[in-house]
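Inverse folding, one chain.
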């Protein structure tokens, strides 16, 4: 891939201010490039419980900071000026790290030399935004971010088993939400409206603007923090697994990880940031930080009621059906096939992806025999090998022929990776009573 020269159009990006419109149930974030190109970012949510705007200022400001990559990436100027609120050195370090590592895939695909590019400057007249506890303390209940895929549904069932009080949270509510909610038997859902087309539509058509992946999980986390602050939730239970720790490739001497904002490194940093700068009573953690995707597939395979409704495919979340062509579809098919009868998995996807030889490059990438780990939320090389090996052994034990894709894959030693995914880890923030 040839290095693209970065054409600098603007010298800085600015987060100018934000507004909390309680009566209009709306938050407005104002940004600009070089004080020339001004624009606003809008989100909608129920603010009727807000008694004092100052109680949520720090949480709102954090959302504005988390959204910066979505706009900054369009022109990537060498300076980011923060006028909306003051940041100390610790805060600057977190956001600098998020922007640099969270945009790693974007920098790689656009061949941008990001070294020394992210420079955050705090305006002298930026206001102080101090953490302020709500007038009512947080309750012992969980807010569960839901994206439509299997992971948050497994979290839902585990919290039910443990008798925990929880509510779903969804950013940019999806059409499949009502069906999933009904099947899950979840009564309460808190949503925040974030229109991609309304907020970002004007940039994607600009001839000189860059485009690419951003650390959207950070936006999800800080949006859930605001919802928890308003509605009095003590816990935010994410559904991020240990598999997210593995990166995709090395670029300019650093690891590039499509899932950086899902790593434990970022989760821990965000957890500490939230306690110190937003609300010391809030506790953010991932329920699956000690598990791999394989372990979640094993649990989800027993939750048949969700099979007709869940979707993890990015295209499918918009169309309502699995596309059957992307790495995410191939990965979920492979994962479920390791634990379910193949016919049931085919019913979910509408075809047998293990017979589709056009997907061979993706499966080779899964096991480290291709061009690299796909830029998607998929398993590690080791667990992908184990998933395929388990399916292979199950199929042979049943006396059935292996699908066509297995003629192309070398799985001769994949049983040796079972011990890798069995190794425990203490790198998690899971409360003892919720360990699984």
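Residues assigned per position:
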């Amino acid at each position: 891939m040839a290095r693209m020269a970065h054409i600098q159009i603007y010298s800085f990006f600015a987060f100018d201010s934000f507004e909390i419109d309680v009566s209009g149930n709306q938050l407005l974030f104002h940004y600009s490039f070089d004080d020339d190109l001004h624009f606003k970012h809008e989100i909608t949510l129920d603010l009727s419980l807000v008694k004092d705007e100052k109680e949520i200022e720090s949480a709102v400001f954090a959302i504005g900071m988390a959204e910066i990559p979505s706009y900054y990436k369009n022109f990537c100027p060498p300076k980011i000026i923060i006028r909306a609120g003051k940041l100390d050195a610790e805060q600057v370090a977190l956001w600098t790290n998020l922007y640099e590592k969270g945009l790693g895939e974007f920098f790689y695909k656009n061949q941008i030399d990001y070294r020394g590019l992210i420079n955050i400057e705090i305006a002298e007249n930026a206001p102080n935004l101090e953490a302020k506890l709500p007038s009512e303390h947080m309750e012992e209940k969980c807010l569960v971010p839901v994206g439509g895929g299997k992971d948050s549904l497994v979290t839902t069932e585990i919290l039910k088993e443990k008798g925990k009080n929880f509510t779903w949270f969804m950013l940019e509510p999806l059409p499949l939400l009502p069906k999933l909610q009904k099947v899950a038997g979840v009564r309460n859902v808190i949503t925040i409206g974030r229109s991609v087309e309304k907020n970002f539509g004007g940039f994607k058509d600009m001839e000189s603007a860059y485009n690419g992946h951003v650390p959207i999980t950070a936006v999800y986390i800080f949006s859930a923090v605001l919802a928890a602050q308003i509605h009095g939730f003590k816990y935010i239970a994410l559904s991020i697994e240990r598999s997210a720790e593995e990166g995709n490739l090395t670029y300019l001497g650093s690891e590039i990880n499509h899932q950086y904002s899902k790593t434990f490194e970022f989760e821990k940093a965000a957890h500490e940031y939230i306690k110190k700068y937003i609300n010391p009573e809030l506790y953010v953690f991932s329920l699956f930080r000690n598990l791999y995707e394989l372990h979640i597939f094993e649990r989800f395979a027993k939750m048949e009621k969700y099979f007709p409704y869940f979707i993890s495919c990015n295209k499918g979340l918009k169309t309502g059906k699995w596309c059957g062509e992307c790495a995410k579809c191939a990965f979920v098919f492979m994962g479920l096939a390791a634990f379910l009868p193949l016919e049931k998995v085919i019913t979910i996807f509408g075809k047998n992806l293990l017979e589709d030889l056009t997907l061979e490059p993706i499966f080779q990438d899964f096991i480290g025999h291709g061009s690299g780990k796909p830029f998607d939320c998929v398993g590690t090389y080791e667990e992908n090998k184990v998933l395929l090996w388990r399916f292979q052994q199950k199929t042979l034990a049943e006396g059935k022929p292996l699908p066509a894709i297995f003629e192309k894959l070398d799985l001769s030693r994949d049983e040796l990776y079972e011990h890798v995914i069995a190794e425990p880890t203490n790198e998690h923030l899971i409360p003892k009573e919720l360990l699984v």
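The chain has two domains: 13-127+192-286, 312-422. Residues 1-5 have pLDDT under 50 and may be disordered.
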